Amino acid sequence: MSDAAAAILLTGILLYVVFAGADFGAGLWGLTAGGLTRGRQPRAFMEAAIGPVWEANHVWLIFSLVVAWTSFPSAFAAAMTTLYAPLGLAALGIVLRGTGFAFRRVVIRSEQQRVASAAFEVSSIITPFFLGTVVGALASGRVPAQGGGDALRSWTGATSLLAGGLAVSASATLAAVFLVKDARLRGVVGLQSYFARRARASAAVVLVLSLVGLAVLSHDAHRLTTRLLGRGLPLLLLALVAGLGALLLLRAGRPWVAPLLAVVAVASLVLAWGIAQYPYVLGTHLSIAEAAAPRPTLVSVAVIFGAALLVCVPSLTLLYVLHQRGRLVEP
Amino acid sequence: MGLTGLLAADPTQLLPAREQMAFTLGFHIIVVPFGTALPFLMMVANYRGLRYADRDALLLAERWSKVAAVLFAVGAVSGTVLSFEMGLLWPGLMGRFGAAYGIPFALEGIFFFLEAIFISIYIYGWKRLRPWPHFWSGLPVVLAGVGGTASVVAANGWMNLPGGVTVRGGRVVDVRPLEVFFNRAFWYEFLHMFLAAYIVAGFVVAAVYAVGLLRGRRDRYHRVGFLIPFTIAAVVTPVQVLVGDLVAREVFHREPVKFAAMEALQHTRDHVPETLGGVVVDGKVRYGVEVPDLASLLAGFSPATRVQGLDAVPPADQPSQHLVNVVHLSFDIMVALSLLLLALVGWFGLSWWRRRDLPPSRWFLRGAASSGVLAVGALETGWIVTEVGRQPWTVVGLLRTVDAVTTHGNVWLFFTGVLIIYMAVGAGTVLVLREMHRRWQAQDDVVVPYGPPERGSPAREAVPP
Ligand code: HDD
Ligand code: HEM
Ligand code: HEM
Predict the structure, then answer these.
(1) Is A205 on the interface with B (CB under 8 A)?
(2) Nearest CA to B404 among B188, B95, B42?
(3) Which of B150, B169, B97 has its CA nearest to residue B393?
């Protein structure tokens, strides 16, 4: 049962990384879009793309947090008492980001738009970066089982910085690939090449980070590296192939192929982490079974997850379909 | 002091952690009614608009949904901060009791999804969905609001009257999920909070239009904008006062210490007077007005009802005098504000019954214009009664607040960051809403949502304001 809870947690994280990642990336590209006048078109385009869906996508984070503290309470407390700095910064980033986005949509004066945009765009980088460092800290075993680990060094190791960088660049790639698809579907020619360039650039960063990363990783987190290159290898290769495929098919073939491949690539990276870490929650010192809550709690979490799938998958599908068909537009 | 030192400084974290929790919860709870109850107001206006081809009502529904969009985002992010804080500030609570306390929150996830999904469909669906399907897309939001409130309040009720767990050696070894969720405080806390959300949303929205009416904008648009929310709040308020009375009696039976703090009662006795106002100084109530026997009467329907005083609690578990004062005064304020609202509603009811119209007096409108603030005041003070009245426990009988709080990191630093950002967000929200308001006022002949409201006709493009 504890493995099931761990699988649910990983699923929640995976869905958050994929869905919210694309939203974060859109914010990041806002930063590169230039001033208010020059950046108006791409910004408006990105806004229309994520406006109706970002809140629903964000709920995966809440869901993952809640599943974590319910299913693995002691490990959750240990992570919180160690990684409070990046987690606190990520939380503040989330506030700035959500409100910045919501405000930007409704204000019209340019200086207000500038402030709201800046809040949204800058925190679109801050938040995934710090959440990434948290993952890195967990993966490299820097959170002691009883908590209270080093406040700074626990999340500033090479693995953490790498994971933070990957989170940002993978989000950027996902977003750009999705936006190319949107631009193709809507027939906005100029933006197709605009976002395609960005997709390639950020994908190159992901690739370089991953390769350099593996070298760094073997020093910083030896066990993780062996696991990644052992049982995680098929997934890493899948990520590589899918990622390259997404780039190649960016503007060829059907519009949906590249985004799906990009999603597969990012999802495989997350799964590879999960598999490399199994069967431990924290480093090699706290196993999933040891950290798990009593059985009835785990059963409840599984039942709730099942119910959530039953209720939310059709609803989310409805939302995405309406959105894709252009039925959801700024009132 | 290096960076590590700065990040991990203060061993006494309790004060900043409590202040931060109180501040962020107090902030979140103000936007909550606009996620749970405002969608219902929108649906009522939307229904009127479609059913009776009422353009004013349709326009109101559309504008309220734009307000909801902004407030919903603020609610979502401030709620996310709360989730982080549960672990960052109270690892002792989550580490020890997450297995039980977390279950209602896990269930809440489902409702958050539904809420976020369908509110988006509703808000963004004005232009291109067909009118009636669009209207119905609001319903899941209203229902999810009920479920969401129930889940969070179940978690809170569990802290007040924990059940469904077996604790051995400080560890939870068994959990009975249904008993955790439907704990002994669940029903009354849930009902009371649920009604509170409708009261707050109703009065706050009505207050906006009351100001408009006071400033002489006496058109139909403003009248409808006032009447829909005010009527709903007016129906709910008397019910809430009855429910509040019931809640107080349940608290008397089940949480006697909290009740003693609410009444600022030092010694167990009968013929307990109701003390209005006043503070406890050196174990005596000063400056209060006493109504003889009333507290006993309200608690047990007889002046002879014995009420447990704070002296029945072992000294180590007694709340400090300062906290007792906070609880007592908050309770008095909640009841006083409720009675003011009740009077306002009574005035309205009387006038409507006699003349089918609002009371003609400007004083009524002035009252209505301040009703929003009063309702929020009742909401906040009610929560303070619940939360501070539980001290020194976080989970009554099982976990003290001192053992729940984090011992790591410098909470003051985190708190400062939170304060600055929340001030900016709060100010931004007010600013943005006022801008929207001003823009709406400036445009007189707006095109109504859905175009001409013929029933069943496909939605037409509306001119975005
Ligand atoms: C608009 C809001 C509102 C109004 C008009 C009232 N209340 Fe209230 N009250 C709340 C909003 C609220 C609340 C904020 O929603 C609380 C906090 C926790 C809860 O369940 O409801 C609350 C808590 C609360 C508690 C503590 C419950 C506990 O700790 O378990 C008591 C005893 C009362 N109320 C009693 C009353 C009485 C006697 C009222 C009327 C005369 C009244 N309330 C009106
Ligand atoms: C009585 C108390 C509370 C009620 C009734 C309540 C209700 C709500 C509602 C209705 C929403 C969504 C709509 C909106 O934001 O307006 C919301 C958002 C949220 N709340 Fe609360 N809440 C309460 C307290 C809490 C507490 C104590 C926590 C966490 C520990 C919390 C966590 C959240 C989270 C994470 C969200 C964001 C969900 C999203 O992304 O949509 N809430 N809350
Ligand atoms: C269902 C929702 C809520 C939950 C689950 C919840 C949970 C908590 C927790 C875990 C603490 C810290 C431990 C403690 O001091 O006991 C706390 C404290 C506090 N909360 Fe709540 N809370 C909720 C709603 C609210 C709301 C809406 C308010 C609004 C005013 C509020 C006001 C406070 C205050 C003032 C404290 C500090 C009490 C003190 O330490 O003196 N709470 N709450």
Answers:
(1) no
(2) B95
(3) B97
Residues B40-85: tens digit of each pLDDT: 999 999 999 888 888 888 889 999 998 998 898 899 889 888 888 8
Asked if the model's pLDDT at residue B451 lies above 60, the reply is: no
Atom from ligand 3 closest to the CA of residue B394: 16
CA distance A120 to A115: 9
Cβ(B337) – ligand 3 distance below 6 Å:
no
End-to-end CA distance of chain B: 55
State the residue for tokens 């919180």: A80
Q: Which domains does chain A have, with CATH numbers?
A: 2-307 (1.20.1630.10)
Q: Does B78 touch chain A (CB under 8 A)?
A: yes
Whole-number Å distance between alpha carbons of B297 and B318: 25
CB contact under 8 A, B66 and A106: yes
Return the sign of the alpha-carbon dihedral for residues A133, A135, A140, A144.
positive
Q: Which of B387, B399, B422 to mutate to test the pocket of ligand 3 (most atoms within 8 A of CB)?
A: B387
Of the CA atoms within 13 Å of residue A188, those in its CB half-sphere come to 16
Distance B250 CA to ligand 1 centre (A): 12
B318 within ligand 1 shell (Cβ under 6 A): no
CB contact residues (below 8 A), chain B span 415-454, against chain A: 417-418, 421-422, 425, 428-429, 431-432, 435-436, 439, 449
Amino acid of residue A295:
R
pTM value is 0.89
Distance CA B211, CA B233 (A): 17
* Residue type for position B445: D
pLDDT of residue B64: 92
Residue B263 alpha carbon to ligand 1 centre in Å: 14
Percent of chain B clearing pLDDT 90 (strictly above): 38
Q: Which residues of A are less than 8 Å from B76 in CB distance? A: 55, 58, 98
Token readout for A191 is 């933006």
Q: Which amino acid is at A140?
A: S
Q: CB of B76 closer than 6 A to ligand 2?
A: yes
Interface test with A, best of B175, B179, B437, B448 (most A CBs within 10 A): B175
| Distance in Å, CA B386 to ligand 3 centroid | 8
Q: Which residues of A touch B58 (CB under 8 A)?
A: none
DSSP secondary structure, A303-327, as one string = HHHHHHHHHHHHHHHHHHHHHHTT-
Nearest CA among A270, A287, A291, A269 for reference residue A278: A287
Closest to B394 measured CA to CA, from B220, B198, B123, B155: B155
Of the listed ligands, the closest to the CA of B335 is 1
Strand extents, DSSP E, B355-397: 393-395
Half-sphere exposure at residue B279, Cβ-oriented, CA atoms within 13 angstroms? 8
Considering all CA atoms of chain A, what is the largest pairwise distance in Å, rounded to the nearest integer? 57
Helix-then-strand count for chain A, H and E: 14, 2
pLDDT digits (tens, 9 = 90+) for A118-138: 888 888 899 999 999 999 888
Which residues in A lie closer than 8 A to residue B439 (C-beta atoms)?
A: 108
Chain B residues lying within 8 Å of A300, measured CB to CB: 103, 106, 175, 177
The secondary structure of B68-126 as a DSSP string is HHHHHHHHHHHHHHHHHHHHHH-HHHHHHHHHHHHHHHHHHHHHHHHHHHHHHHHHHTT
